[in-house]
Design goal:
heterodimer; A: alpha+beta; Aminopeptidase; 2 domains; 31% helix; globular; B: mainly alpha
Chain lengths: 268, 86
């Protein structure tokens, strides 16, 4: 598995307080063209500086050959909303954190299908599910981003997780080898679980997300998990309702905006 | 006070009404997963035990997965020996 590193540099040398940007090499490796991320700084540019801010974005994008720049920032930073929209960013997602302490077993649905750790025989089916199950997230929600590339990103994500040598990473499979119904990627460290990526097979007559989530969470708790955290797209009502039904609490809403470079020829 | 005896059809309808929050006068022949308001994946996992409790049966995983309409649910309950009269 490749290890990528990013190097953030000020978006504007004369105004480093506006934030820093870097290309995301893991996404470039998947998409075949550079995309970048902006981390907003301590100070929002003044209204009169919007054109300079936009020029700084264009210069960075030209230098890095980045066709898209994303930014994630607290939904409470209202001044950035106005500035970024004026600079040409569009909103693509609202991310929220979800968390839960120890599960109360009596409140959880009875396991019906069974979860187990993924084995190599499972990989093709799981990768197939990863390639067609996702409809949310910033790339899927960006009207100018090719759907096929957004889907491919999740396939790569899962493949990397399946090949990971990190003993804290787990891929659970819902269902038997004869009928793989979904997967769940989670990282368990010192009793805390980061719930990373999950999907039930979208080709089934009914959604099995609740079974996948509840059975995986119970399995993780049996492995020692005492706290569960994740990030969810607020547009993904199915998963938000699912976590709410288990008793997760939501916090830290964050806007995710995209900016498209002029002349970006891989975008729609 | 004597317990009201329900037909299997009415028991199944009651399970749907309670688990999915459906109005009592809904056209059950048109009730479908993902189409009928309230029948999403979370509600499905409440509907399954509601039906099991109503009929004292246990659905297998294939039946849980394939139960995508009221008519299909009837077929599945029937497979457990419950007789629906016309």
């Amino acid at each position: 598995m490749s290890v990528f590193q990013t190097s953030y540099s000020p978006l504007s040398a004369s105004n480093p307080q506006w934030g820093a940007a870097a290309c995301l090499p893991w996404d470039e490796a998947i998409f075949g063209f550079p995309v970048a991320e902006l981390r907003v700084g301590s100070q929002t540019p003044a209204r009169g500086d919007v054109s300079d801010f936009r020029a700084a974005l264009e210069q960075f994008a030209a230098r890095a050959r980045a066709e898209l720049i994303s930014v994630r920032f607290s939904a409470h930073q209202l001044a950035w909303v106005e500035l970024l929209c004026q600079a040409g960013f569009i909103p693509v997602d609202l991310s929220i954190e979800a968390s839960h302490g120890p599960l109360r077993l009596e409140a959880m649905p009875k396991p019906r299908f069974g979860v187990r750790l993924a084995a190599p025989d499972d990989f093709p089916d799981l990768l197939r599910i990863a390639g067609c199950a996702f409809h949310f997230g910033r790339y899927h929600a960006d009207p100018r981003f090719p759907r096929e590339l957004a889907d491919r990103r999740y396939v790569h994500w899962l493949r990397n997780a399946l090949e990971s040598a990190d003993s804290n990473e787990y891929i659970f499979v819902l269902g038997s080898a004869a009928q793989r119904l979904g997967f769940f990627h989670a990282v368990l460290r010192e009793g805390g679980v980061d719930l990373r990526l999950a999907a039930a097979d979208p080709g089934l007559p009914v959604g099995l997300g609740p079974a996948l989530y509840s059975e995986t969470l119970l399995a993780l708790q049996q492995m020692g998990a005492r706290r569960f955290v994740t990030k969810v797209s607020a547009a993904n009502m199915g998963v938000v309702n699912l976590y709410a039904s288990i008793g997760f609490r939501f916090s830290n809403p964050a806007h995710i905006f995209h900016w498209h470079a002029p002349g970006a020829n891989h975008l729609l | 006070m004597g317990e009201r005896r329900l037909t299997p059809e009415q028991k199944l309808k009651d399970a749907f009404i309670q688990a999915l929050g459906l109005p009592g006068d809904i056209d059950f022949s048109a009730v479908q997963y993902g189409v009928t308001d309230g029948w999403d994946s979370v509600a499905h996992m409440q509907l399954v035990p509601a039906i099991e409790n109503s009929f004292d049966i246990m659905l297998n995983s294939d039946q849980v997965i394939s139960m995508s309409s009221f008519e299909k649910a009837k077929e599945i309950v029937r497979a457990h020996g419950v007789v629906f009269t016309a």
